[in-house]
């Protein structure tokens, strides 16, 4: 109980003054264990973490080092079809090189560029081009929900304008371009908007539980720290990606007190948590979310202990899916390293994500505002009708 | 609830009081209804203040005179009906909706003005003009043709009215009543010209519906099907129309209204004598008496169109059942009507045709109460008629109408079903065990299509007495080679553990996500939800309705009690045969029930797959679409 008060700040001081290394959290928690007798199993895992961490960092470095920008601006205007689609992927990759940019936003920007570079002379042709480009992008990563949703929403948003009735194709096209740019802008700024909206929900002395590395949630916490709010973060490990560790690195750079938890320690620590923040891979029509494996578990535990679960998701992630249960989604598998050899006969559950039904979620923070889960369908109907 | 009932003197165990009542006192002004059986509750609620309703029922303020709303609420036993005026003041009246009022039981009959009638009697005609006195629920609406005697009673009641009703002064109310009486007289004079008020035909003038005591007056269904946007447009013809169609959700507790309705009815139905108290507000007739009678009258139809007559008979005999089938049959009959229609002299096509349609609708109501799908379709038809440009010639107008109706059937029913099937089939996986209840047409199409797509699944058909509709579905599925299991609803909790998904059909989906469908659906959905099996409801969007229903009682349909007492083909267990008229035993054969939205996982419509919370959004979009069309 004493942990729930703001006195954790004092504890923090105490902890900082005693020179215990961050990774040895385990040891401070279990005083009766011999701190030096870390089993070989855990040692391997630690090494693995190390690998993943530095690997990702290396990638990020390379990404930042690369030039982000559009390639093939208007040179390939003369060719159509295949050249164009190639163009789209190039654009997409170009945009994607920015480490902070979400995939879907890169896709949206690429599609906007398609309109700009398009040579079509009728609206129908333009729409067909757009559709083709979007299909190409979607096929680049079939399992990414936000990519698919982003592309679909973009096309709906852009073409849903009475500008299409205009006689003059050029003015219609420029109108489309306008909307496309606007959509791109909104998507880019989405994170900032969400971060601003969620500031009201973070109060001084609160304890936030986060799961895995979500850039939106990171943005939220960054902004909160910048606003000089005092809070601390419990961060789950996020196996198998190890994203929790990455997040904790980021947070510690911002001087936010962070504690790493095993995924299985969530229920154990839920008592001292005030709210749960998660991101989303996609928001489905029922108002539920599809997110990294483990989110459903956390939401269930939080719900049973009456803790609010807040989802931070940009609006381009609203997808026209409606899973009825966990298996009702397109599978997304990823390799899972256990650190030891697993016999061939043993099956491994390799799904990378799960579905959290809307009744376990409290609020959605989106760039459209702070919404309740049932509003998602409302928005989608209005857009798709 | 029991503890609260202690102070009450038990007068009649047959009378179930719903709501909170203080000890009853005999009301001095109570006049025993001669028609009523002994089951008329004296108890009805007469609290010391003379209020028939408990203080707990507080009507939501709706009208300008909403300040007059105190608890007395609706009081009233008497019919308080929304009347057409409310119709004109409120655009979005759901057709035929009636809100529940827990205090309903207390309404014994019109002649029992036990509670003070707050009201200002509002004549529907006058009401339209004097919409300032809608007086929220507290209004007693007088029937257009109310015999003077009753009007007097009203004024008497007014004298007794509670001090609570101080806001509208007596003088005001009196003035209003005078105005209404004058209007009524005028209406009567005009009424003679109404084309449809011919002998022995159609519907009563009785548009007003008996209102549940409570202020549900706000909701209102207003007059009849006749209602409709066209109502507002045809202000004058309003009167005629009103005369023709009784409200589809007329409350049948009110003796005098029932008598009036019967007088104008084509179908002579004898009311069932032995009725369940709680459902006295729903019509119940002796089954099997009208069909032969009507069949003989086939060639004396004068005002009735043969196509409509035929459809009515088909409803009566149960040959056509199911929301879609009934709606399509009715619309096709209307197409015939339009085809054979010729405008009488000195009448405009819009008004006359609408009046005709209303009369046919009231005939159909007498045969069998309207389903929500039919109500929406009728609203659409009247809308189209009203929107016909005056400049069109008669044949053009008729052609336009016919094509509109054809388009409605095609788009909203046939193509909607294809879209639903397309969406639903994506949810069926190999190895699924699908449960369905009854015989919903949409679900049948989904299953057949999924089978065509070579998906491997098996079906569990759950059935129930007395209709045993599941057997029809079963036959059709088996003919196509689908692996089926058949069981009755008593076993649904036994087999639910092997079910992976439940597909249900719906007669309608209401604004709060409640699914209104065949009785038994709620039980199946509840059991499924307890076993955490997803429940998918397949329903076309035209069946959505903006009203809200909280229970299965306030609005329902009563079937033939003999169907329950008799088990066909099993003479050995017909213990209840012949007991239908026993005073100690009442049979209740409900046709519909309401499933709360918590048990529904998703609704599959032609607008896609939506959660139950999105139904009001679709209703809103749908109306927008319609007003633009």
From TrEMBL, chain A:
A molecular function (GO) term: guanyl-nucleotide exchange factor activity
Region (Disordered): 1-32
Record's protein name: Translation initiation factor eIF2B subunit alpha
Endpoints of the signal sequence: none
Gene Ontology cellular component list: cytosol; eukaryotic translation initiation factor 2B complex
Record family assignment: Belongs to the eIF-2B alpha/beta/delta subunits family.
Regions of compositional bias (Polar residues) in chain numbering: 18-31
Quaternary state and interactors: Component of the translation initiation factor 2B (eIF2B) complex which is a heterodecamer of two sets of five different subunits: alpha, beta, gamma, delta and epsilon. Subunits alpha, beta and delta comprise a regulatory subcomplex and subunits epsilon and gamma comprise a catalytic subcomplex. Within the complex, the hexameric regulatory complex resides at the center, with the two heterodimeric catalytic subcomplexes bound on opposite sides.
Cited InterPro entries: eIF2B_alpha/beta/delta, elF-2B_alpha_N, IF-2B-related, IF_2B-like_C, NagB/RpiA_transferase-like
Principal localisation: cytoplasm
Pfam families listed in its UniProt record: IF-2B (PF01008)
PANTHER family cross-referenced by the UniProt entry: EIF-2B GDP-GTP EXCHANGE FACTOR SUBUNIT ALPHA, TRANSLATION INITIATION FACTOR EIF-2B SUBUNIT ALPHA
Alphabetized UniProt keyword annotations: Cytoplasm, Initiation factor, Protein biosynthesis
Subcellular location: Cytoplasm, Cytosol
From TrEMBL, chain B:
Composition skew (Polar residues), residue ranges: 20-31, 108-117, 129-143, 198-208
Alphabetized GO MF terms: translation initiation factor activity
A Pfam family assignment: IF-2B
InterPro entries with a match to the protein in the record: IF-2B-related (IPR000649), IF_2B-like_C (IPR042529), NagB/RpiA_transferase-like (IPR037171)
UniProt feature, compositional bias: Basic and acidic residues: 1-15, 151-176, 230-258
Stretches with biased composition (Low complexity): 41-56, 73-88, 177-194
Stretches for region Disordered: 1-258
GO CC annotation, single: cytosol
Subcellular location as annotated: Cytoplasm, Cytosol
Lineage: superkingdom: Eukaryota
Subunit and partners: Component of the translation initiation factor 2B (eIF2B) complex which is a heterodecamer of two sets of five different subunits: alpha, beta, gamma, delta and epsilon. Subunits alpha, beta and delta comprise a regulatory subcomplex and subunits epsilon and gamma comprise a catalytic subcomplex. Within the complex, the hexameric regulatory complex resides at the center, with the two heterodimeric catalytic subcomplexes bound on opposite sides.
This protein's name: Translation initiation factor eIF2B subunit delta
Organism of provenance: Brassica carinata (Ethiopian mustard)
């Amino acid at each position: 109980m004493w942990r729930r008060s703001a006195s954790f700040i004092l504890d923090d001081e105490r902890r900082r003054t005693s020179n215990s290394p961050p990774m040895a959290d385990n040891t401070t928690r279990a005083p009766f264990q011999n701190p030096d007798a870390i089993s070989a199993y855990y040692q391997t895992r630690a090494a693995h973490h190390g690998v993943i961490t530095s690997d990702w960092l290396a990638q990020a470095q390379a990404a930042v080092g690369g030039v982000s920008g559009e390639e093939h601006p208007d040179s390939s205007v003369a060719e159509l079809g295949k050249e164009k689609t190639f163009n789209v992927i190039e654009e997409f990759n170009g945009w994607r090189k920015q480490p902070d940019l979400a995939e879907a936003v890169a896709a949206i920007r690429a599609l906007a560029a398609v309109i700009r570079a398009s040579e079509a002379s009728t609206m129908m042709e333009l729409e067909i081009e757009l559709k083709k480009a979007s299909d190409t992008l979607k096929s680049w990563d079939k399992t990414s929900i936000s990519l698919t949703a982003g592309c679909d929403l973009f096309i709906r948003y852009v073409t849903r304008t009475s500008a299409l009735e205009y006689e003059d194709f050029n003015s219609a096209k420029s109108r489309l371009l306008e909307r496309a740019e606007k959509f791109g802008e909104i998507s880019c700024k989405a994170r900032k908007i969400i971060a601003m909206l969620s500031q009201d929900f973070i109060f001084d002395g609160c304890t936030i539980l986060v799961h895995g590395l979500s850039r939106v949630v990171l943005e939220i916490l960054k902004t909160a720290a910048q606003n000089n709010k005092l809070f601390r973060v419990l961060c789950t490990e996020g196996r198998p990606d190890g994203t929790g560790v990455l997040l904790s690195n980021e947070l510690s750079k911002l001087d936010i007190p962070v504690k790493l938890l095993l995924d299985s320690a969530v229920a154990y620590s839920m008592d001292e948590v005030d709210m749960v923040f998660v991101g989303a891979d996609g928001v489905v029509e029922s108002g539920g979310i599809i997110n990294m494996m483990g989110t459903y578990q956390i939401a269930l535990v939080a719900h049973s202990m009456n803790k609010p679960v807040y989802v931070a998701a940009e609006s381009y992630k609203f997808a026209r899916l409606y899973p009825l249960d966990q298996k009702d989604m397109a599978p997304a598998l990823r390799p899972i390293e256990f650190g030891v050899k697993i016999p061939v006969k043993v099956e491994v559950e390799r799904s990378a994500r799960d579905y959290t039904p809307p009744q376990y979620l409290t609020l959605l923070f989106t760039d459209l505002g702070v919404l309740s889960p049932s509003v998602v369908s409302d928005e989608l109907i209005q857009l798709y009708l | 609830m029991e503890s609260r009932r202690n102070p009450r003197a038990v007068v009649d165990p047959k009378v179930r009081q719903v709501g909170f009542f203080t000890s009853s006192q005999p009301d001095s002004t109570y006049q025993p209804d001669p028609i009523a059986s002994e089951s008329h509750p004296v108890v009805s609620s007469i609290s010391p203040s003379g209020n028939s309703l408990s203080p707990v029922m507080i009507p939501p303020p709706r009208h300008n005179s909403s300040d007059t709303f105190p608890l007395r609420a609706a009081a009233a036993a008497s019919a308080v009906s929304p009347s057409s005026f409310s119709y004109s003041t409120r655009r979005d009246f759901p057709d035929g909706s009636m809100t529940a009022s827990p205090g309903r039981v207390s309404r014994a009959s019109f002649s029992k003005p036990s509670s003070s009638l707050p009201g200002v009697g509002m004549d529907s005609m006058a009401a339209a003009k004097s919409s300032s006195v809608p007086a929220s629920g507290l209004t007693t609406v007088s029937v257009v043709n109310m015999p003077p005697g009753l009007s007097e009673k009203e004024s008497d009641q007014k004298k007794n009215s509670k001090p609570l009703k101080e806001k509208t002064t007596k003088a005001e109310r009196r003035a209003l009543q005078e105005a209404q009486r004058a209007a009524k007289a005028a209406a009567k004079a005009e009424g003679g010209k109404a084309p449809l008020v011919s002998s022995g035909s159609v519907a009563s003038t009785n548009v007003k519906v008996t209102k549940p005591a409570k202020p549900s007056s706000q909701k209102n269904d207003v007059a009849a099907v006749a209602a409709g946007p066209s109502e507002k447009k045809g202000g004058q013809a309003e009167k005629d129309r009103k005369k023709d169609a009784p409200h589809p959700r007329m409350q049948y507790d009110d003796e005098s209204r029932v008598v009036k309705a019967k007088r104008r009815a084509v179908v002579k139905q004898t009311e069932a004598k032995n009725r369940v108290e709680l459902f006295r507000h729903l019509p119940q007739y002796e089954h099997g008496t009208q069909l032969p009678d009507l069949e003989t009258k086939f060639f004396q139809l004068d005002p009735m169109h043969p196509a409509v007559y035929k459809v009515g008979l088909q409803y009566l005999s149960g040959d056509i059942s199911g929301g879609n089938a009934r709606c399509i049959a009715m619309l096709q009959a209307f197409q015939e009507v339009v085809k054979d229609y010729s405008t009488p002299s000195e009448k405009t096509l819009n008004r006359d045709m609408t009046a005709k349609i209303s009369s046919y609708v009231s005939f159909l109501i007498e045969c069998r109460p309207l389903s929500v799908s039919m109500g929406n379709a009728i609203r659409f038809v009247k809308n189209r008629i009203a929107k016909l440009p005056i400049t069109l010639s008669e044949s053009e107008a008729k052609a336009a109408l016919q094509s509109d109706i054809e388009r409605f059937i095609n788009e909203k029913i046939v193509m909607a079903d294809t879209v639903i099937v397309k969406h639903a089939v994506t949810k069926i996986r190999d190895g699924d065990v699908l449960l369905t209840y009854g015989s919903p047409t949409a679900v049948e199409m989904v299953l057949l299509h999924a089978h065509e797509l070579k998906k491997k699944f098996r079906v569990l058909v759950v059935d129930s007495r007395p209709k045993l509709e599941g057997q029809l579905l079963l036959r059709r599925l088996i003919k196509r080679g689908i692996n089926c299991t058949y069981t009755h609803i008593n076993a649904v909790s036994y087999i639910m553990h092997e079910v992976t998904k439940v597909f249900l059909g719906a007669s309608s989906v209401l604004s709060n996500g409640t699914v209104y469908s065949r009785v038994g659906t709620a039980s199946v959905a509840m059991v499924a939800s307890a076993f955490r099996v997803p429940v998918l409801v397949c329903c076309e969007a035209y069946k959505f309705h903006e009203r809200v229903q909280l229970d299965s009682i306030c609005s329902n349909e009563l079937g033939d009690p003999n169907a329950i007492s008799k088990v066909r083909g099993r003479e050995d267990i017909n213990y209840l045969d012949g007991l239908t008229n026993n005073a100690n035993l009442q049979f209740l054969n409900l046709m519909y029930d309401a499933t709360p939205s918590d048990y529904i996982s998703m609704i599959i419509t032609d607008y896609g797959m939506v959660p139950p919370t999105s139904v009001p959004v679709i209703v809103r979009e749908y109306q927008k679409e319609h007003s633009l069309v």
